[in-house]
Amino acid sequence: MNVKNYSSALSRTDIEILNTLQSDCRITIGELSDKVNISETPCWRRWKKLEKEGYISGYGALLNKKAFNLSVIGFSQIQLASHHVEDTEQFEKEIEQLDWVLMCFCIAGDSDYVVQVIARDLEQYYERVSMLRCIPHVTSINSSIAIKEIKNTHKLPIDSM
């Protein structure tokens, strides 16, 4: 199903429920039903339907990286020696095992992948990028360090779709 059809099946109330849950997934059903102006039982049914239909993929706590002394965020563009399926699959499996790689995207352009790496300090960041270099088929890494976080959100812009 394409995204336009997928999202067009949502009512205004469904969108309000999803927007509220994106901001506070610990909200009670009573608070949510008040916020979207429907009674608790229909609100709960809509919530469960949104989960079942795949609009909600999970719930989790957002941790404060400063509380864990994780102050360095870097973005590394990675090139592989080849684009053979076996090579890219091996690279992706290795990346999935690294808990300090927060995100990884296969991209179009000069590089093959971009990864977001988190570390305590520059020394640890260097160690982690060095580990990336050791992954088979990696031929080039170009890294940039974030110096100021302007925006970092998990919320999808479902109102503007």
Automatic annotation (TrEMBL):
Keywords: DNA-binding, Transcription, Transcription regulation
Pfam families documented for this protein: AsnC_trans_reg, HTH_24
SUPFAM superfamilies, per database record: Winged helix' DNA-binding domain
Domain HTH asnC-type: 10-71
GO cellular component: cytosol
One MF term in the entry's GO annotations: sequence-specific DNA binding
Superkingdom per UniProt: Bacteria
GO biological process, one term: regulation of DNA-templated transcription
Protein name per its UniProtKB record: AsnC family transcriptional regulator
